[in-house]
Amino acid sequence: MRIVVLVKPVPDPASGAERLGPDGRLDRAASPAVVNGNDEYALEAALKLVEEHGGEVTLVSMAPANAPETMRKALAMGAQSGLHVTDTALEGSDTVSTARVLAAALEGLEFDLVLAGVDTSDGVAGVVPAGVAALRRLPYLSYAAKIEPDPGAGTVRVRRISATGYDILEAPMPALISCTQALGEPRYPSLKGIMAARSRTIDTRSLGDLGVDGSGTGGAVATTAVVDSRPPEARGATRVVRDGADEAARQVVDFLAERRLLRGFN
Amino acid sequence: MPMVTAPPTSPAYRLTDEQSMLRDAVRVLADEQIAPRAAEIDRTAEFPQDVRTLLASHDILALPFEERFGGIGGELLSLCLAIEQISRACATSGLILAVQELGALPIIIAGSQEQKQRWLPGLAAGQQLVAFALTEAEAGSDVAATRTRATRDGDSYVIDGAKRFISHGSVADLIAVFAVTDPEAPRHRSLSCFIVEVPTDGFSVPRIEHKMGIRGSPTAELAFNGVRVPAANLIGAEGDGFGIAMRTFERSRPGIAAQAVGIAQGALEVATRYAQERRQFGQRIGDLQMVGAMLADMDAATEAARQLLYKACVEIDGGSPDAGRWAAMCKLVAGDTAMRVTTDAVQVLGGYGYIDEFPVERMMRDAKITQLYEGTQQVQRLVIARALLGKDG
Q: I need a surface site. Which of A259, B2, B246, B294 has the fewest CB within 10 A?
């Protein structure tokens, strides 16, 4: 199977240094970049699928010029190659521009599945996968908790998380699937993977290379803008209970009961 | 005026992208998978087979070996980056990798192609562990005082004697044993090195030591009573043993320095976090100048030891004629730094540092060994002084 995984470098949430610049856009210099968490779940799912069915995984990313540094970790996890679209005309792009460019990047690739994280930890819009699917006219299977392709029949089944459990969806391939953490923990890159990633290529393209008109992308034509942002209010002091199990349980129950968070007690 | 030490022979180092990624990958693995085990490994004093399996499955035990033997390069700096990151979480676990290198070095340095092909792939895959058996009860720093004998008998050698303080001696599958083959030869030509595959007749482990630190790493006494080893297991030629051991230390001492830097870094991090959270006199204790100054000294000393270690790695890998001096200097500085920084970390935590609710008392106990093994700090100074002064006449 040939699987494309859409990946985005995002500020490392663990760094705690994520912030917006004065223009309301992400200050990318403020914190180190990592592969978006949900994209790593998508990549893990893709790697498991090619381990089972054969084939290879290609990364596609629309990101600033230094993105290959971040993409290399995804190569070390086991992806075979990467396609990186970067262009100064893309600065300040909204989700519409992003979906258009990613859809154009898929044009030259052969694939059975496109996998993407359900959303990204910086923008959190969660609409790019659906946008790419719509532009490419691909079946769109969202919120996947399980992915079961049948290469013989040319179809794929997905368990979609729902409010009450899950739905089972089936679509012909190629299809685009948005992926959740329910697919399973991403692997650590092995050291051999890191060394092997050295010889794998990330192909960098500009908008011109993709045949996309730059005037329709970027901040100037963005349909949304971030007008304000605030850090969450500090939480109250944490209360740590260090007594023995029985006493600790009693205190926790009392704490919850006092706030009427328990039924059937007191 | 001529300089008394030769200038460095290799260009200044800069970590490659792969080395940075490798370091970060090992750090995440150590934080998430090894750190939660560290206190229990120390308390139970049991060799952590689960950590050994984890290191093997992530190719970390392949680091000391060349690609053609199933390894991933054998670069000293990459190896030390990994030992440092593992030791930052758990010194016993970091030692698994350091000893895998130490025990394999005689084969890597002086083994024939056939011997390398025979043993290195299993070690690189982590399927087998290897130990390095040089020290004896009466032959520590004075290597030439070794008494264990190896006597040629047809196509094999028969080994008789005992070794002491052998890391992994009870869990290893291969043991590089140094024994006297010619008691009449000059001191430095009397020893030879053999690979003993265990278990085998006449080999036993009479005792595992009860230790202050690195408690999960089994330190064994080994007994050899008529242990028969094929002549094909002789590494190098008869009489090469002393030279092999010395060249081994040129590459293994940086591994211990890396363990020491990792321990120091781990203690610095715990102490710093504590100094941010603990409040006395209405302020963070780190904002009390006497505590802040301790943290600053700990940080500067740890970084200085790290930079010397990394530079030593590149010098040694680059074939410096001064390799022995670089190896001794980095272990000397890193070992003393680890001891001082961990002791100060306990001080920063006060009473909490002295109990096992926090990891710094363990780190302090673990740090001590880095001043003792693979040559005491006094031996390191001896090596450096000899390099400085040259021979008399």
A: B2
